[in-house]
Please model this.
Amino acid sequence: MKTTYSIALATFTLFVVFASFALAFDVAISTQAGWWSQGAADKELAALADAIKGKVGSVTLFPADKQADLATWVKNNTKDGENDILILAGQFPNTIYQPGNAQADDSLAEIFLDSGNTILNTGDICFMSLMVEEPTRKVDYRP
Model:
């Protein structure tokens, strides 16, 4: 239920954005799961990508093992003159924002946002996974 609600909210938000801007913007979707299972995140976000294809400039899906490619997408779409959207599946990628605020200023995520782009997160605590390095995390908050 929580998954369906989050996906519905993200979809609604995208449709509001569609109504507000010209449709010449790109969408990236990271399926790296944080609060839900990886399988569920992959399935639900693939369905979201399919639902918005053809309604925006482009849709690119980044599985959990392609977060370095996501960072490249963020770099390439930061100052391209479009209001692009990055959708997260509850885990903020450490490829665009280092854990522990290691780069206090000018992270890829900060520059992306400051350039007029948007980051949507389907999780409840966006930076929970970045509070400590992943290998030392003692508690798994996913159901």
In short: The mean pLDDT is 81.
